[in-house]
Amino acid sequence: MQEILSFLEKQNKYHMPDELRECLEILGIKFPSQKVILVTGTNGKGSTCATLQTLLIDAGKNVGFFSSPHIIRVNERIKYNGIDISDEDFSRIFKIIHEKLSNFHLSFFEYLTFIAAYYFYFEKQVDFAIFEIGLGGTLDATNAIDHDISVITRLGIEHEDVLGKDLKSIAENKFGIIRKNNAVFHTEFPNEISDIYSKCLVEKNARFFKAPKLDYFVCKDKYPKYFVNIKGRTYELNLLGERAVENTSLAIEIFKYLVPNYEEYLAVLKDVNWPCRMEKIRYGNRDIFLSGDHNPQGIQSLMEILQNFEFENIYFVVGICSDKNSDQMIDKLSTVKNSHIYLTETPVKTLAVEDYSEFVKSTSEFLSKYPIDALEKAVTESSNNDLVVITGSLYLTGLIKKQCGESAY
């Protein structure tokens, strides 16, 4: 397995959708389009997919789910009924695909997309395959797969070097997943993309389903719990925050379209698991929280969640990738009452501590290139009435989770 991963990590040639559709034909993969759900957006893709997966499994459906990035092991990206693909299956299917498509020199992400598609189509014959877009929409490898259902989560500014400098350009790229006659499920769109939405309505004859705003409330104990009200009944959520409520509503809207008696299964919302999204783990004898918010919109969501926590001081251990807006992210975190920022690096795509802006460095109270050193310092200097949160990057939270023994509970 390690030899395969070492090979994959060196592959960086990307292909156009027509070439990737040719690859699918060579592999013999032709999903019935009504079985495929393709999900794009800026924030909330993963939690929306994880919630939909949980609902569909509880309803007795066999579900494939392809996501990115992984937290600890690459196997996490390819799940069947919530269980990661095994090393044996991953390795065996990789060899089949490599043999049939070696002339294409696929990228790392393209290989993973085809391994997932092969696994779901030939070996598991899923009722539904959920594919989370890796980047953007139009040119993403997953968009080569025929699908009747497109999903667009909350939109925001991201990956400007690839997707464009403004929200309209980014939206156009993400709307590129919508096929003719698609059912499109979405959260509220920003006003500035109304013309893109109108164009899709006319040119693609797409049917748009906007997720409703759910009534919710928060119970505060030591840590908050979120509950939603749906048709006179109350359901507990395992995920935290106003955005979690929004993503839950979106997942339910898709589920309702697929499973008419959807209300029978909503109690399972309390079991939805999506790692490193304000996930509580133990470090020594202390609770710490992993929250892999990796852009300004994600940090804003974290701040909304923290309003329902009770603490005297909050210690942020923050590492941010080099392609993110670190100034905006740190600026938002610094406005949290009694906050202390401990700056570190991420294991992948990191911005070195010395390369952060002077604003970021001056706002931080402690700098170390070693994440565990920063975490240890935060835990040592905080008290039991304080909160310790690791954020800024999923790669960073994954590293901490792995080194803490994955002791989530």
Walkthrough of the structure:
The chain is built from 14 helices and 17 strands. It is an alpha/beta fold. It folds into two domains: 2-271, Mur-like, catalytic domain (UDP-N-acetylmuramoyl-L-alanine:D-glutamate ligase); 277-403, Alpha-Beta Complex (Protein-Tyrosine Phosphatase, Chain A), CATH 3.90.190. The chain has an eight-stranded mixed beta sheet, with helices on both faces. Strands 12-13-17-14-15-16 form a six-stranded mixed beta sheet, sandwiched between helices. Helix 3 (45-58) packs across helix 9 (242-258) and helix 10 runs parallel beside helix 11 (326-334).
User: In CATH's first tier, which class of the largest domain applies?
Assistant: Alpha Beta
Describe the biggest sheet? 8 strands, mixed
Report the portion of residues in β strands.
15-25%
Question: What fold name goes in the CATH topology slot of the largest domain?
Answer: UDP-N-acetylmuramoyl-L-alanine:D-glutamate ligase
Please give the share of residues in helix: 25-40%
Figure out the total of helices.
14
> Structural class, from secondary structure content?
alpha/beta
Mean pLDDT, nearest integer? 93
Count of domain modules: 2
Strand order of the largest sheet: 4-3-2-5-1-6-7-8
Radius of gyration: 21 Å
Return residue spans where pLDDT drops below 50 for at least 5 consecutive residues: none
Distance between the termini: 29 Å
Number of strands: 17
